[in-house]
From TrEMBL:
<dbReference type="GO" id="GO:0015977">
    <property type="term" value="P:carbon fixation"/>
</dbReference>
<dbReference type="InterPro" id="IPR022805">
    <property type="entry name" value="PEP_COase_bac/pln-type"/>
</dbReference>
<dbReference type="GO" id="GO:0006107">
    <property type="term" value="P:oxaloacetate metabolic process"/>
</dbReference>
<comment type="subunit">
    <text>Homotetramer.</text>
</comment>
<dbReference type="GO" id="GO:0005829">
    <property type="term" value="C:cytosol"/>
</dbReference>
<feature type="active site">
    <location>
        <position position="150"/>
    </location>
</feature>
<comment type="similarity">
    <text>Belongs to the PEPCase type 1 family.</text>
</comment>
<keyword id="KW-0670">Pyruvate</keyword>
<keyword id="KW-0456">Lyase</keyword>
<dbReference type="Pfam" id="PF00311">
    <property type="entry name" value="PEPcase"/>
</dbReference>
<feature type="active site">
    <location>
        <position position="577"/>
    </location>
</feature>
<dbReference type="GO" id="GO:0006099">
    <property type="term" value="P:tricarboxylic acid cycle"/>
</dbReference>
<dbReference type="GO" id="GO:0000287">
    <property type="term" value="F:magnesium ion binding"/>
</dbReference>
<dbReference type="InterPro" id="IPR021135">
    <property type="entry name" value="PEP_COase"/>
</dbReference>
<protein>
    <recommendedName>
        <fullName>Phosphoenolpyruvate carboxylase</fullName>
        <ecNumber>4.1.1.31</ecNumber>
    </recommendedName>
</protein>
<comment type="function">
    <text>Forms oxaloacetate, a four-carbon dicarboxylic acid source for the tricarboxylic acid cycle.</text>
</comment>
<dbReference type="GO" id="GO:0008964">
    <property type="term" value="F:phosphoenolpyruvate carboxylase activity"/>
</dbReference>
Length: 908
């Protein structure tokens, strides 16, 4: 027997703060249910709670199963809500105690990485770096977390708002308060939890792209942007040269621009995303300018000012005679009016605090806004007021350089197959007689290079195109207009999914030429960065060859510009689904090194864009640790990393957490960029290669070579039900088939997580070790010789700890083909047990995560929270698959999905 942490107030041996928080929130939830639903309803929850407390380590809970089997559909919905609500509250209780967030932010034991950029700079100075050298390092830095949509996002913004307020109130309780204030906070907590109970956990309709944009911007507005402001203020004061710091940290987004397999993303969503982002940042600029206006009532009667400031002030249209001798205020009023005009142009609305429409000229570009602010700074500095400048003005300049009028640089992404079909139709409709799809790779590349060598367009305004082609052209035209309106920085990169050949890089260049974002000729140029995405194991292996072919073309140099930097995206998700955890991580690491080598050999810098997800199976784990685990020579001060779905709220959901994660990421990039490349021991390198190949073979033997595996996956996980739920705006599969190859990687991982297998985070490792014949000593040498392998082991151990083979076995029992299901499950369980044994042997541990007790406790807490939800989900899946199609059953399943995902903090 074990004491279940989800016992809504039950005591368990954990830290005092976590236990007290969990007890309080659990008690308040029961109190709210009794108040709103009656004592009988609260009694049912208590009965389920007691039954859950008797679950065995093997996942058996007969009392709970009997209770759930006797539930009506209405009661099932009710209990699903209760347990899902508790899993959310349990997370809050732990977060407020400062446990889980710090467990993620902190490095592994023995890791001596700097936690902040200031610390990293201090370390470099201690090593002898001069201010000039540091300024050069900062000027080359480009650290960009990229927010992306999530096909399996389960939380609603209204629920996130409730969680945020509960967290805030719980944080207040950490201080010693008078009894009356303590009672007041408890009553306000009760009110928030009662409101949460009456708030839908799910969406009645599928989330739209507009919803995703709005939800993400809510977090950007309330936590990410304030965190960036804090960081730039600190950096400007502590490490900037004369208070100035390069815009080394920026934010990116795919929301509204990622149309790969997404029918809802087009030119209109791109416009919506940019205008929505613009409103957020312009309102912030306006507020800062308004504050400066209030403070800088500096009169020329007491101090001279620069001629440039007087010229700027003379353009203001302030009729007040009281400000004729206050040029700083007049200049700031002009700046405010021009920002208002920019907002009117880009968003159709005034900025915050504007009282009337302005007829001044809007800024044509963010650089002009920054230039006006610099005039104010330089005038103050030149006339004895350097200390009057303060940090606010310099911080405003730094943020403006980083965010422009677009706030988040928006990436465009499309599949190479779509580009091929679009190019084919353009040639067909042009009357050229070219059948592009029938050409081989050499002929395609030759044709596309020729197309880029002149100015003539392929597109005619007098020609009607098919729906797909018309949509592609309209989206690219919207991007061209965005560049004209917001500046080049508003588009981060054009990402090419499924890149495998040189023609895959050339095709979007030809398409962008049609809308004026690429200029053809003897020396073609581009307004956008083109970034091939190498996703599968094979593509990662072939990526360096494709890059070499591209960089050997003379046109690549003019397209990349005077300071050539080629961006390449590396896919963790599809490579994992393709070849398993070890082969994927090895493929990404080797690919990164080989790509950096090719770029360096050709005299080109490289910027790697890591397509990571939240789960271990998709490259998840602490971002700073992931950066430090990158092969030497691959970071080069530049890195972009995706942040998806629930990880956005988890890593950036409040200002302190956002600041810590952003600061730690910037520090890790500096540290990683300064490391000297070490030549690995050839024996260690050979062992790693052998392990990756053997692991690949072991993984493929199960997932792709076993003819019964596809049916096993669809029956032993809730993937079929997940596909039908309204928990994402993007289809779960690229086609209508059930093939593993066509399923998107995120719902693949999500399904294994729901059924508590966590298979993508560890399967294939043990088989690889056995097939490669590696000893424990050799594996220990690997962990010592490769930072990425040490990180791989750490994250794999977390995935193993998060899995629950006892509950997974219950899902296997749902399969109609029990002979094959049990055979496959035994293979999976054997691999799990062996992987655990090997992982512990490598580091000499006795149990999973025993070297990280706080993280181990966090995993245990999360697991216990969702165990009864798994049991309830199993009962509901059995009903639905047995023919019960009532809406209540579907709703209850959706609630269990949301609760499990929230409790594990893992959707994919």
């Amino acid at each position: 027997m074990r004491d279940s942490a989800l016992s809504l107030g039950a005591s368990r041996p954990t830290s005092r703060d976590v236990r007290q928080n969990a007890n309080l929130l659990g008690d308040l939830l029961i109190e709210a249910i009794a108040y709103l639903e009656g004592e009988d309803a609260a009694g049912l929850v208590s009965k389920a709670r007691k039954a859950a407390a008797h679950e065995t380590e093997e996942g058996e809970a007969p009392g709970l199963d009997h209770l759930f089997a006797d539930l009506s559909n209405d009661q099932a919905v009710f209990l699903a809500r209760a347990f899902a609500s508790h899993s959310l509250l349990a997370n809050i209780g732990e977060d407020v105690a400062g446990r889980r967030r710090h467990a993620e932010a902190d490095a592994r034991p023995g890791d001596e990485r700097a936690r902040t950029l200031v610390d990293a700079v201090a370390a470099l100075k201690a090593e002898g770096k001069t201010d000039a050298e540091l300024a050069k390092i900062f000027a080359a830095m480009n650290v960009v977390p990229v927010l992306t949509a999530h096909p399996t996002e389960v939380r609603r913004r209204s629920m996130v708002d409730r969680e945020t307020e509960i967290s805030r109130l719980m944080t207040l309780r950490r201080h010693h308060l008078p009894a009356d204030l303590e009672a007041d906070i408890r009553e306000r907590l009760f009110r928030e939890i009662a409101l949460m109970w009456r708030t839908r956990l799910y969406r009645p309709e599928r989330i739209t792209v507009k919803d995703e944009i709005r939800n993400a911007l809510s977090i950007v507005r309330t936590s990410i942007l304030p965190a960036m402001v804090d960081l730039y203020e600190e950096w400007s004061g502590k490490i900037g040269s004369h208070g100035h710091i390069a815009p080394l940290l920026k934010m990116g987004s795919w929301l509204g621009g990622d149309r790969d397999g997404h029918p809802g993303v087009n030119g209109e969503t791109l416009k919506l995303a940019l205008s929505s982002q613009s409103r957020v940042i312009l309102d912030w600029y306006a507020g800062e300018v308004r504050k400066l206006w209030s403070n800088l009532a500096v009169s020329t009667a007491y101090t001279p000012v620069s001629d440039e400031l007087l010229a700027l002030a003379s353009q203001a249209k302030d009729p007040s005679v009281h400000r004729l001798d206050e040029p700083y205020r007049l200049a700031l009023e002009l700046i405010f009016d021009r920002l208002t005009a920019v907002s009117q142009k880009l968003t159709g609305q005034w900025v915050a605090y504007a009282t009337s429409r302005t007829d001044v000229e809007p800024y044509a570009h963010p650089d002009a806004f920054v230039a006006d602010l610099q005039i104010i700074i330089e005038s103050l500095e030149a006339n004895g007021g350097e200390r009057l400048v303060g940090s606010a003005l310099r911080t405003l300049v730094a943020v403006a350089k980083a965010c422009g009028f677009h706030l988040l640089s928006l990436d465009l992404r499309q599949n190479a197959d779509v580009h091929e079909r679009t190019i084919h139709e353009l040639y067909q409709r042009s009357g050229s007689g070219v059948r592009y799809l029938d050409l081989d790779e050499d002929a395609r590349s030759k044709l596309l290079i020729e197309e880029l060598s002149h100015q003539r367009p392929l597109v005619s305004p007098f020609t009607a195109y098919g729906e797909e082609t018309a949509k592609e052209l309209a989206t690219m035209e919207a991007a061209a207009q965005a560049v004209r309106d917001y500046g080049h920085a508003c588009i981060g990169a054009y990402i090419i999914s499924k890149s495998a050949t040189l023609s895959d890089i050339l095709e979007p260049l030809v398409l962008l030429k049609q809308v004026g974002l690429v200029w053809g000729g003897a020396a073609p140029r581009s307004s956008l960065k083109i970034a091939p995405l190498f996703e599968t194991i094979e593509d990662l292996e072939n990526g360096p060859r494709v890059l070499r072919q591209w960089l050997e073309l003379p046109i690549s140099r003019t397209i990349l510009g005077d300071r050539p930097v080629q961006e390449i995206m590396l896919g963790y998700s599809d490579s994992n689904k393709d070849g398993g955890y070890v082969a994927s991580r090895r493929g990404v690491a080797r690919g990164a090194s080989a790509l950096a080598f090719e770029a360096d050999r050709m005299g080109v810098g490289i910027q790697l864009f890591h397509g990571r997800g939240g789960s271990v199976g998709r490259g998840g784990g602490p971002a700073a640790e992931a950066v430090l685990a990158q092969p030497a020579g691959t970071v080069q001060g530049r890195i972009r990393m995706t942040e998806q779905g629930e990880m956005i709220a988890r890593r950036f959901g409040d200002q302190p957490t956002a600041r810590r994660n952003l600061d730690g990421l910037a520090a890790a990039v500096v540290q990683s960029s300064q490391r000297d490349a070490l030549r690995p021991d050839p024996k260690v390198e050979a062992a790693m290669t052998a392990l990756a190949q053997a692991s690949f073979e072991g993984y493929r033997a199960l997932v792709y070579d076993d003819p019964a595996f596809e049916d096993f996956f669809w029956s032993a996980t809730p993937i079929g039900e997940i596909v039908g739920l309204n928990i994402g705006s993007r289809p779960a599969s690229r086609t209508a088939s059930r093939k593993i190859e066509d399923l998107r990687a995120i719902p693949w991982v999500f399904s294994w997580s729901q059924a508590r297998f966590m298979l993508p985070g560890w399967y294939g490792f043990a088989a690889g070790v056995e097939r490669a014949g590696l000893s424990t000593g050799q594996l220990q040498d690997l962990a010592g010789g490769f930072d990425f392998f040490a990180s791989l082991l750490s994250n794999m151990e977390l995935a193993l700890a998060q899995s629950h083979m006892g509950i997974a076995a219950r899902y296997v029992a749902l399969s109609p083909d029990q002979d094959n299901a049990q055979r496959i499950f035994e293979t999976i369980k054997r691999e799990h047990d062996k992987a655990t044994e090997i992982a512990l042997a490598i580091r000499g541990g006795a149990s999973l995560l025993d070297n990280q007790p706080e993280l181990a406790e966090s995993v245990a807490l999360a697991g216990h929270s969702v165990d009864p939800l798994n049991h309830l989900q199993l009962e509901l899946l059995a009903r639905r698959r047995g023919g019960e199609q009532a809406e209540d059953v579907r709703l209850a399943i959706q609630l269990t999905v949301a609760g499990i995902a929230a409790g594990l903090r893992n959707t994919g």
